[in-house]
Amino acid sequence: MRRRVYRLYQPITIVGLELWQLPVIGLGFVIGLRLMEGVHPAAGLLAGAATGYMALTAAEKLRERYPGASLLHEALWLTQSDRYTPGKDQETTPLLIRNDHE
C-alpha cells in the first residue's frame, strides 16, 4: 500500500524569491535610488541594489530570530503601557509579617 506524502511548506516563488521578499527588496531599492538622487544614474542603481540586498538580509534575520508572529507578540508585550499606570492599589489585603522571635 502506497501512502501519499504531503509537503507542509511549499512557498510560492517568483524568480526564486518568495512573495514576501519582493516588496522588501523593492522598498530597499527605492530607498537606495532616493539616497543617490542627483548623482549619476548608475550609482543610483548600484545603491538601490545594495540597499535592497541589505533590506532582504535584515528581514531574513528577523524572520529567523522571531518565527511566526512572535515579533508582533514581543512588540505588543513591550508596549503595554496601559497595564502599568500609577494609581490606587487593586489588592487591598494587608501584608502580615509574623514575628516568631519572641
Please, what is the oligomeric state? single chain
> How many strand elements?
2
- Termini separation comes to 80 Å
Biggest sheet details: 2 strands, antiparallel
- Sheet-strand content, in percent, reads under 5%
Described by the principal axes of the CA atoms, the overall outline is: flat
The residue fraction in helices comes out at 40-55%
User: What is the gyration radius calculated from CA atoms?
Assistant: 26 Å
Strand order of the largest sheet: 1-2
**What string, H for helix and E for strand, traces the elements in order?**
EEHHH
Structural class: mainly alpha
Unreliable stretches: none
Number of helices: 3
| Overall mean confidence score, pLDDT | 84
Please give a handful of descriptors for the protein shown.
102 residues; mainly alpha; two-stranded antiparallel ribbon; 3 helices; 4% strand
Write up what this structure looks like:
48% of the residues lie in helices and 4% in strands. By secondary structure, the chain is mostly helical. It has a two-stranded antiparallel ribbon. The model has no long low-confidence stretch (mean pLDDT 84).
Tell me the layout of helices and strands.
Elements: E1 13-14, E2 17-18, H1 21-35, H2 41-65, H3 70-78
Antiparallel strand pairs: 1-2
Helix pairs in contact: 1-2
